[in-house]
Write a structure and sequence with these properties.
Layout: H1 2-18, E1 23-28, E2 33-38, H2 41-44, E3 48-55, E4 58-64, E5 66-68, E6 71-73, E7 75-78, E8 81-86, E9 91-96, E10 105-113, E11 117-129, E12 133-138, E13 141-148, H3 151-154, E14 158-164, E15 170-175, E16 177-178, E17 183-184, E18 186-189, E19 192-197, E20 202-207, E21 216-224, E22 227-239, E23 258-262, H4 269-318, H5 337-341, E24 363-371, E25 388-396
Length: 403
């Protein structure tokens, strides 16, 4: 009996894996799901019905009808799921409320013969994502997305970052995978990187150097090839770089964080190179102007110094005085009386000069040589030979006069 059941279960699962889903439903976290499953009420109205979730090739019951001492209990609620079997019309209605991201997966609405016989009536693929988030980025920036998930249920599942193309389809850009022995929780492909922190239950996606063509809708998803189950949906807009500001952007949900960081301060690599060359040229011009100004200043300073030295030299030349040795000035005749009596025409008379006081630096010394009048001798009254006298006078300079 058990072997027969196992074979039947394997056939059911194999049939499920081979077939397409009867319905693919997308919901945003917090919304509700209602599914109707029809069956032949003539044959199966008295058969129990169930709503179960497939995981690891087994279908785990969430809610099911049952029999009690009072009869068939056709409406049952368990947690956030309710099943209602309308036996008169052959319709089973499933309701799930307050959907969460971890509710994403594949479900069966099925006929149920305890303890383990399950005959699917309908296969539903459910995608539950966070509230759709829209972000604006500038070309050249980096995008970082963090996607939390339930580690108890999805720790061992692959994770992926894909770009939505058409309804319910998504092209995988990068994904984690299982290696020969262990789970490879990090991967990189092109400009996209993914890292799955299985301890914290956070998938981190990074896209570098965003381009305008990167604008679109993306999923951070659980990956069971070929199926993808959204964790978060991101609508990304990328614009040309128009400013140099770097404004980090974070998600308003608090659970999901998306950060836009500037890789080139809002400027494309080509613009950055051009800006560097422009700054180098401007710096060279500024340094050149400064060098010319310094050179002109040195020339002016040298010229001014030269004029000062010349002026100072002239003044020193004009203010040279001989140090006096005596304190009196007087004149005396070097000839004795005998010589006076003798007539010595053409002979030179001698005089001695003595300074009475030290001249002030502001006073000048003037020397005048003038011919004197003919002197008469007291005895004869006749003029003697002419003699030239030298007189020296010291006069103070008038205030403000140039020496």
């Amino acid at each position: 009996m058990e072997l027969r059941f196992l074979l039947l279960l394997l056939l059911c699962i194999s049939g499920f894996l081979a077939q397409e889903f009867d319905a693919v439903v997308s919901r945003v976290e917090g919304q509700s799901l209602i599914v109707e499953c029809r069956y032949n009420y003539w044959d199966y109205s008295a058969t129990r019905k169930t709503w179960c979730k497939l995981r690891d090739e087994k279908c785990f019951t969430l809610v099911s009808t049952s029999y009690t001492s009072y009869g068939y209990r056709n409406k049952v609620t368990s947690g956030r799921a309710t099943i209602d079997d309308d036996t008169s019309n052959g319709i089973v209605t499933i309701t799930m409320e307050k959907l969460q991201v971890q509710d994403s997966g594949v479900y069966w609405c099925a006929r149920y013969n305890p303890p383990s016989t399950v005959n699917p009536l309908k296969t539903i693929k459910l995608d539950v994502s966070k509230e759709v988030q829209e972000y604006d980025a500038i070309e050249g920036q980096n995008l970082s997305v963090q996607c939390p998930y339930n580690t108890q249920d999805y720790k061992k599942e692959k994770k992926a970052w894909c770009r939505s193309t058409v309804q319910n389809e998504c092209d995988v850009l990068v994904n984690t995978d299982y290696g020969f022995l262990t789970y490879q929780n990090s991967a990189e492909k092109g400009r996209a990187r993914i890292h799955d922190d299985t301890q914290k239950g956070i998938v981190t996606i990074t896209m570098e150097k965003l381009q305008v063509d990167d604008a679109g809708v993306y999923w951070c998803a659980r990956y069971k090839p070929p199926s993808l189950y959204r964790i978060i949906e991101i609508k990304l807009a990328v614009a040309k770089a128009t400013t140099t500001s770097d404004v980090p952007v974070t998600s308003s949900t608090g659970q999901t964080s998306l950060v836009l960081s500037t890789a080139s301060a809002g400027v494309t690599p080509a613009d950055s190179s051009l800006l560097s060359k422009r700054n180098f040229i401007i710096l060279g011009l500024v340094l050149g102007v400064l060098f010319i100004l310094v050179l002109i200043g040195l020339v002016i300073l040298y010229t001014w110094k030269s004029k000062q030295l010349k002026t100072r030299g002239d003044g020193q030349a004009e203010a040279i005085y001989e140090e006096p040795r005596n304190d009196t000035v007087g004149f005396s005749n070097m000839n004795d009386t005998k010589d006076d009596k003798q007539e010595m025409p053409q002979d030179l008379k001698y005089a001695t000069l003595a300074f009475q006081s030290r001249p002030s630096p502001r006073e000048s010394v003037y020397a005048n040589i003038t011919p004197s009048r003919a002197l008469e001798t007291p005895h004869t009254g006749s003029p003697t030979d002419p003699v030239e006298y030298a007189s020296i006078s010291l006069k103070p300079l008038a205030s403000g006069a140039k020496s």
